[in-house]
Input
Amino acid sequence: IQELRRQIRVLNNQIAGLNRTIEEQQETIDAEEELHQERERRVYVK
Output
């Protein structure tokens, strides 16, 4: 049981790390989407 608890802790840490990575990637995607929309708006203005 001790070993299982240790493994669960390790997995939880890995999951937390993955969640952070996903959040960072989502922020990057959102920023790129914003830039893309801004470019499209400029094209319409011309």
